[in-house]
Amino acid sequence: MIPQSFITDLLNRVDIVDVVGRYVQLKKGGANFMGLCPFHNEKSPSFTVSPTKQFYHCFGCGAHGTSIGFLIEYSGMGFVDAVKDLAQNVGMVVPDADDKIPPAQRAANQAQAMALTDAMTQASDFYRGQLRGADNAIAYLKNRGLTGEVAARFSMGYAPSGWDSLKAVFPDYDALALVESGLVIDKVDEDGSNKKRYDRFRERIMFPIRNTKGQVIGFGGRVLDQGEPKYLNSPETPLFQKGYELYGLFEARQAIRDAGYVLVTEGYMDVVALAQLGFPQAVATLGTACTSTHVQKLLRQTDTVIFSFDGDRAGRKAARRALEACLPQVTDNKTIKFLFLPSEHDPDSFVRERGYEAFEQEIHEAMPLSQFLLREAAGEHDLSTPEGRARAQFDAKPLLQSMAPSSLRLQIVRGLASITQSTPAEIEALFELAKPVSVARRAPPRQGRPQPVGLELQILRHLVAHPPLCVELDDAALQSFDHFGPESAERLRQLVAAGQALGPNGGFAALSQQLKESSVEYDSLIAEIASEPESDVDSVKMWLVATVRQLKADALKRELNELFSKGLTSDQIGIRYREITAIQNQLKAEEDAEKAAR
Q1: Which CATH number is correct for 4-89, 3.30.1490.20, 3.90.580.10, 3.30.1340.30, 3.40.720.10?
Q2: Which tens digits make up the pLDDT trace of 292-305?
Q3: Do 406 and 440 form a contact (C-beta atoms < 8 A)?
Q4: CATH 3.30.565.10 assigned to 249-365
Q5: Taking the model in full, what pTM does it have?
Q6: Helix intervals (H) in 402-536
């Protein structure tokens, strides 16, 4: 758990204009910066970045957030990764309560990661330069229908034939980083007496693999002839884990947003060829089965994921593994489909033979996850017999158990119940599904806190926009919020506590990030504040002081009325009456002093 104090400090140090400017071309426009929104198609800029609020907001699609939020939405990073990325850029180290690594070792790990990243970058530049003079590699790519433009887009390169070509790049060819990054291999005799080092990749088309930050973390290399292995990948390294990365995701991010879906294919060449043929929203797993982490990454980028597999037996097997990886991530607002091409085709050959529109139609008609799951469960079983229906249920059980309770799971349960002559309740009971949906009693709708209106809404708006004002509020001010009713008063006190925790230097961005993590209750209010010109804090402070003073005065009047209505004696009333009167006089004196100062 990253401490909130660190998040606040981080957002105070980074400049959102610099962060967003790495990905969006921004131009100064008044107090803010403007650019084309990276989250939807637009021809005229409606995307604004406020250096004073440290917040971005799009007037077109409503996207908004802090530097952390931008990295999460744009790059598909998780919250922790986004924080670490920002922290690294400003020289901060993210604290981790569970991290038992000594500081010296952590610094050594960071130094190692930087050395590996630098080595991979230099190797990528070298391979890219080698491709320009490799006639055989260029001929191969042209024969596959690829242009120099698409090769440049993916920074494709060529590893020459020599055993130690990387010596031209790394004068210290014996450096440990070259082995740790997987660029070279050390071969040692059985008796350990002789060690020989040589390049891992030779005579191969090189596909750099990038992480979400655009850094090269690994390579895939394809042979030009019929040699084996056909594809050679970088080994697992501190930078590169195949189960976490997807080829082409960095290059496809904007295209995925434009298309509204991501197409997951089986290989590097599929991704590059599809980009060439008009489908730049394609990515590929890296020589390994699709994992749940892959699916999680993709669903951060888009609400629709379409897996494209060859129609042969291997393609069906890969699709089944992808299905199993998807099920833990399935929600009702996400769509996952499966596209099966004829056995003689991969996506590249299909588009070249049948055309763009035909492949687009195949994508449109891809099989929904629910249908694929039921088909997998039914398999070759004879559903006209009790044994066949029981076997279908047996095969479906682990699949449904891996899904979270949802409307989609209920729909699949109903479908399975229909083909196996059961009821949804029987299926859920038999499978011991967590939180059964079909038999659950409907709880009465929970009444949330009333929406803030009027004066309460104004106070909330000003405190969110200017968190340091929370520090100005004393206990009496918090008590005066009872004027709005218990639930509204509690909301105001919670907000004040959050603002006070940030201290006098807390900003709109830091408080917004904290509120976003704890509740969606403030999301629309934050969006409104982000879209408006920044209010003058001094004027707001004067208004807030006057408003709270009036709330305090009203609270004192109510207390006096309650005292007199209880039938108490003058002695019983006297002490508190004098206290209230003194506070009223103090409030009146403060008001008079302010009026005189104007």
Answers
A1: 3.90.580.10
A2: 889 988 988 888 99
A3: no
A4: no
A5: 0.69
A6: 407-419, 424-431, 454-465, 475-480, 486-502, 508-518, 523-531
